[in-house]
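Field: COMPLEX_INPUT
Field: COMPONENT_COUNT = two
Field: RESIDUE_TOTAL = 462
Field: MODE = joint
Values follow.
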Amino acid sequence: MNRPLPLACGVAAIVFGLVLQGSFAAPPSGTGIVFRDRKDNMVVRNLDSWRATRVNDQTISFVGAGKPLSGAWRDQGLAVTALSLEGQATRQGDGAFQLVTATFTGGVRANVTGTGPKPIIAELTCTSVKWRAAEASSTAQLTGNVRVVQREADGQVMTLAGPSAILTLPALGQNSAFPIRRAEIAGPVTVTLLRPGTKDGKPNLVSLKATAGRLVFDDANKRLELSGGVRLEGEDAMVAGETLAERAVVTLTSERKVQEIELFGSPGTSTFREVRPR
Amino acid sequence: MLAVAMIAGLGLGLAGCLRPAPARPANAPRSQTKPPEAPRRAFATGAVEAEARDPQRRRLWTIRAKSARLDMIDDRQAAGDMTDVSGTIFQNEQSVSQFEAQQGQADQVKQRLSLRGSVKVTSAAQRAELRADEIDWRADLHRLEARGNVRVISLDYEIGPFPVLFATADLRTVATPDRFPKLP
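Field: COMPLEX_OUTPUT
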């Protein structure tokens, strides 16, 4: 569970610092009340209401609220702003507190950051999140106006949106640049992909939008499956105009770029592949 | 040796003084006229040591002070203003935390120990310290009430500053007043 990686922690700290100062910065009118563990791993700021109880020698349970509060768990790659927080954290051998369970509610915005030299940040927005960390993997149940946004270095932005979602995240200590192993979003689901391309012969971001009843993203198999009244709208070479299907399977490259789109359903099956100029 | 004996002697004296006044029997006739006010006296002392107990004779706290001023009423009831205080808080006859402060006021009748000035309450079991400008131990409510620049500092974490924070005597639970557990 413990990772003696001071350099990685330092990089993560910088990343989190930037994250917290950027889109997830605490509002300037903070209370100044801060909880921080001895390793600065778990830091909760801007609290105006709090209760902490020691459950046993390693574990504390806590309830807090702020307008909003912001919390970060550096080793777990998690930074959250929300109106309230309730959960438990355990002290590891190095003194760092790690989140075991938590419920964040009220205007939740969270960044989940992968690990490794080029970590990718997934931005989550919803009205509440239930987080549970386990040895094999962690899960996050998101409800209420869920949006999952993934930004790539080349400018590609993928947004998954729906009323609720279940995300599977890597277990603590597992190296994974992309922080989402699996995502299930209950419908109606909207997927928007903006990627660098050309429009009217000029470099531009081209869009691919899909709506469906359900979405399953499987990072291990680089597969994104949409089902239930799938509608695709595109403006690039792969999907131009509007297409309807019962089911759509999007195969991604190792860098999570769209490689192939297969459509299933009456009247038959269609496959779209991007044709790259030779 | 003489100093120790003096402290012990004054401590016994203060502990005796801090006993609550005996309650009026239920069937005793009510007096129609206001009773004459009991004589009130104040003493300044050197070092003192005192112990407070609840009506069931369970220890609430012990306190030591370098000097004290004792208010005595009718030779039975008293409050004490003490300087440079330290001591122990008890629950169920068990020592649960230690305290120190620049000033202290003990009121056994109200079961309240008021500590002022650079106050620290320390729990060895929780490896934690509660620091504030003022802390009251409300034995009747089973809680510490800390006010002014309140911080909890433990070997594991630090939190604060709160304007007001409540805590159990052993510092196992700390909470803002809106979240402090209600008594059963």
